[in-house]
Amino acid sequence: MLSRALRHTALSFSLLSLVMLALTTVAPQPASAQEVNVSADLMSRYVWRGTDFGNAAAIQP
Hints:
38% of the residues lie in helices and 16% in strands. It has one helix spanning 4-26; strands at residues 41-43, 47-48, 51-52, 58-60.
């Protein structure tokens, strides 16, 4: 059985660890700027899952 001093030290360490863990998970995160990207590709023809849907140029978002 653990001595009283060792149990006290282990309990203190455990509580301190829990408090530190809680503080790191609750810390506020800096606000980041929102970013939106829009793009489109010009392809020589439209092929979907191996099926050719036309020989003309196609714009794919």
